[in-house]
Design brief:
This protein is 48% helix and 15% strand. The chain is globular, with a radius of gyration of 27 Å. It is of the alpha/beta class and 807 residues long. It contains 32 helices and 25 strands. The chain folds into 3 domains: 1-57 and 78-108; 58-74 and 109-415, Glycogen Phosphorylase B (Rossmann fold, 3-Layer(aba) Sandwich); 454-472 and 491-777, Glycogen Phosphorylase B (Rossmann fold), CATH 3.40.50. The chain binds N-[methoxy(oxo)acetyl]-beta-D-glucopyranosylamine. It catalyses: [(1->4)-alpha-D-glucosyl](n) + phosphate = [(1->4)-alpha-D-glucosyl](n-1) + alpha-D-glucose 1-phosphate. Keywords: Allosteric enzyme, Carbohydrate metabolism, Glycosyltransferase, Pyridoxal phosphate, Transferase. Its cofactor is pyridoxal 5'-phosphate.
């Protein structure tokens, strides 16, 4: 039936009755949520089926985005928006006395990722579908997502995130598409004349069961698939699992998302996870490809596999294994196809995140994969001999000092390597991966990250969206670059005021939320100054904290500047559970917050709010209310950043170092519409090359720095002696790895400039408008089009007519 408000209301009441035998007034928000999601799902399922059939019929090349993390957040609102149902459903439910926003709050975030890399993977899923492109996700269905963060006495406590507890209405378990993954054991090669057959002994067999989630494109009828794998005991193997411990081992394989994106621990389990989802994914892809009835020598024309950072790097060896061992292709033919199929994105230059695996662990996890990697390595060295200097070959080969270097495997085994912002890609080419760039210049390319404006503007910020519709029409909803039309209104007081009003409403909404969550009352007159991202030393939350302490001491000592503006500092950040330094910073932020928020002399001048459990759905509440976006990593360290893009799109002004995508933001909005400070990448590298940074001198010679740092150790900030000392020592004794002291003065100066600018509201609103206007330049729909054209060579289905989803 056609979709309209009245028909929907009937459908809703009937479905609620069928499912729960309840009237609307007797149903809980949970029951209402599950009813609504079931209607949504049954309306897109037909398109889901049609989409993949169409890809098959048209012989479309399909791309599979392999990622150990996905961070979709909540799906209800984005499905409603993308189906074109959002406003009608909101209205219809209102008639039934139901508040859509309230029932949307019931949905638990799907938080199967740590941070930027996982969120980008989900933005790309949304954009692939919205661009009508044949692209699917492949990952792990973690029983517990990223831990739930609580603060107790200011310390981060990690609780299990039981996101599946009340059921997940979006997934479909596809038992019939299960595959078997082999782990561990031993392998022998038996000569069968024209090929070598691997014979396995004592391997553990795991049944990989896919759970599929539909990814609904924006108003285009395309519905793609994100496939996440669960691990089970195959029925044929039941007898081998006699004890609870043995059975638990299988469950454990997919139970937790490896919660540490900075350090390695629990190593073997992590590597097993990596092989598990890679092998399951590639087996199911090859099985699907066989339905195309094409030669395996053409698989590269029909299939692309994207290696999202190095975690899925074993894809290279797994595809080789299947092509050589199971399809009996020659090594050279198989290699040609593998390189054609694979492509790779690097997401960080932080050395500790470039995975290396000891050979003996790889041997233990999958001995055949190790053999294949050794053979790839041997052939690589052989081929490069004579062409490149020996030390260069040693630096680039895959296995070195008994370690398997996953980035090397990814680059050698694929046809494309990309960085995620211009500066990042330049750093890869010039420095981190320079040798590879010399060998394979044609493989390197940049793809600056993007965000989905649907979630971050249309859904998260309806207030601003309405203002935009009125000012420039609704085209921007389809094509966010059209937000530039706003530039015509830079001197239009009406539009400027409307934008400011929308911001105020969003600040009021967030202020209420903050009070409910933390008991802290904040004034919406203050600047809402936001830093939301993983807690990591290189991101320099500490610089922000030092600035807060400085302002606190200034006020206490009666030294407030005449144009000082009240501020509410808002943090959201999780620290990896074993990253003690990051946890010390969390503790200190919480103690500073306590000190500042409860001091009557400070009152509304400063408030510090550290919201617990930063996640996608919390970001949706914070971002629309932000006035300032803190993007203050040490230049060269943040590959791109994406919260910088979300915040500018919502009219926040950026305080930034020239790092990652901040540079591209600056290039769009112009120097006058962003607050740039701090060392540049070249200056940082000069320090590295000359070894002439002495942080202690900064402490010693700068009274301001001394005053602030002493507060961490002299009892001024209460209840964090040990943590304060650790931070103090890292910045003075251990030479301040991320140049916090070096950039402090420049940071304070730019913040004073922020205050001066804020005192001229009209000018501030104009700057805000310019940021919104260029925010649309970072749409992940555009980013993904560039991946599609330059890396994957995939194209959308021919324009199909699509009305709205019927009921
Ligand atoms: C992050 C980068 O730190 C961030 O700058 C970037 O925007 C994001 O990836 C998306 O590209 N990296 C990770 O999350 C990570 O785990 C191994 O890298």
């Amino acid at each position: 039936m056609d979709f309209n408000k009245e028909v929907f209301k009937e459908k809703f009441k009937n479905r609620l009755d069928e499912k729960y035998a309840l009237d609307v007034k007797d149903a809980t928000p949970q029951e209402l949520y599950l009813t609504l999601s079931s209607i949504v799902r049954s309306s897109y399922s037909r398109y889901w089926r049609k989409t993949w059939k169409k890809y098959m019929e048209d012989g479309k090349k399909q791309i599979y985005y392999f990622s150990i993390e996905f961070l979709p957040g909540r799906l209800l609102m984005s499905n409603l928006l993308n189906m074109g149902w959002l406003e009608t459903v909101r209205d219809a439910l209102k008639d039934l006395d139901i508040d859509l926003d309230e029932i949307a709050e019931v949905e638990k975030d799907m938080a199967l990722g740590n941070g930027g890399l996982g969120r980008l993977a989900s933005a790309f899923m949304d954009s692939l579908a919205s661009d009508g492109l044949p692209g699917n996700g492949n990952g792990i269905r973690y029983r517990y997502g990223l831990f739930k963060q609580k603060f107790i006495d200011g310390y981060q406590i990690e609780l299990p995130n039981e996101w599946l507890d009340s059921g997940n209405p979006w997934e479909i378990r596809r038992e019939s598409k299960s595959v078997t993954v082999r782990l561990g054991g031993k392998v022998y090669l038996v000569d069968r004349g024209n090929y070598l057959e691997p014979v396995y002994e004592d391997a553990q067999l795991i049944k990989a069961v896919p759970y599929d989630t539909a990814i609904v494109g924006y108003k285009n009828g395309t519905v793609n698939t994100m496939r996440l794998w669960d691990a089970e005991i195959p029925s044929s193997e039941e007898a081998k699992y006699r004890t609870i411990e043995q059975r638990r081992e299988v469950e454990d394989l997919v139970s937790v998302l490896y919660p540490d994106d900075s350090k390695e621990s629990g190593r073997i389990l992590r590597l097993k996870q990596e092989y598990f989802f890679v092998s399951a994914g590639i087996q199911s892809i090859v099985r699907h490809f066989k339905k195309y009835n094409k030669s395996m020598n053409k698989i590269g024309e029909y299939i692309g596999i994207h290696i999202n950072d190095t975690h899925p790097a074993m894809s290279v060896a797994e595809l080789m294994r299947i092509l050589v061992d199971e399809e009996h292709m020659s090594w050279d033919d198989a290699w040609k196809q593998t390189v054609a199929v694979m492509s790779y994105t690097n997401h960080t230059i932080m050395a500790e995140a470039l995975e290396k695996w000891p050979v003996h662990i790889m041997q233990q996890v999958q001995p055949r994969i190790l053999q294949i990697i050794q053979e790839i390595d041997r052939r690589f060295v052989e081929e490069k001999q004579g062409k490149y200097a020996r030390d260069m070959i040693e630096r680039t080969r895959i296995i070195k000092d008994n370690q398997v270097r996953m980035a090397n495997l990814s680059i050698i085994g694929s046809h494309s390597t990309n960085g995620v912002a211009k500066l990042h890609t330049e750093l890869l080419k010039d420095d981190v991966l320079h040798d590879f760039y010399v060998m394979y210049p044609e493989r390197f390319n940049n793809k600056t990250n993007g965000i989905t404006d649907r979630r971050w503007l249309q859904i998260a910020n309806p207030e601003l969206s309405k203002v935009l519709d009125k000012a420039i029409g609704t085209e921007w909803r389809q094509d966010p670059t059209k937000l530039q039309k706003l530039l015509k209104h830079q001197n239009d007081n009406k539009v400027l005021n409307q934008i400011a009003n929308a911001k105020l409403k969003n600040k009021e909404r967030l202020a209420k939320f903050i009070e409910k969550e933390t008991g802290i009352k904040v004034s919406t007159d203050a600047i809402f100054d936001v830093q939301i991202k993983r807690l990591h030393a290189y991101k320099r939350q500490l610089l922000k904290l030092m600035h807060i302490v400085k302002l606190y001491l200034d006020i206490k000592q009666g030294k407030v500047a005449s144009d000082f503006q009240p501020r509410v500092f808002i943090f959201g950040a999780k620290a990896a559970p074993s990253y003690y330094y990051a946890k010390a910073i969390i503790k200190c932020i919480n103690e500073v917050a306590n000190m500042v928020n409860n001091d009557p002399e400070i009152g509304d001048k400063l408030k510090v709010v550290f919201l617990e459990d930063y996640r996608v759905s919390l970001a949706e509440k914070i971002i629309p209310a932000a006035n300032i976006s803190e993007q203050i990593s040490l230049a060269s360290k943040e590959a791109s950043g994406t919260s910088n893009m979300k915040l500018m799109l919502n009219g926040a002004l950026t305080v930034a170092t020239l790092d990652g995508a901040n540079i591209e933001i600056k290039d769009y909005v112009g120097e006058d519409n962003i607050f740039i400070f701090g060392l540049t990448k070249d200056e940082v590298y000069d320090y590295y090359n000359n070894g002439n940074y002495h942080s202690y001198d900064y402490y010693n010679n700068h009274e301001e720095i001394r005053r602030v740092l002493n507060a961490f150790v002299d009892g001024t900030i209460p209840n964090c002696q040990a943590e304060g000392q650790e931070i103090f020592d890292s910045l003075t004794k251990y030479n301040d790895e991320y140049f916090v002291l070096r950039d402090f003065e420049s940071y304070v100066n730019i913040q004073e400039m922020v205050d001066r600018t804020y005192s001229n509201k009209r000018h501030w609103n104009q700057m805000s408008l310019v940021n919104i206007a260029y925010g649309g330049m970072f749409s992940s729909d555009d980013t993904i089009k560039r991946y599609a054209e330059d890396i994957w060579n995939i194209s959308p289905l021919k324009d199909e007519k699509h009305g709205t989803y019927s009921l």
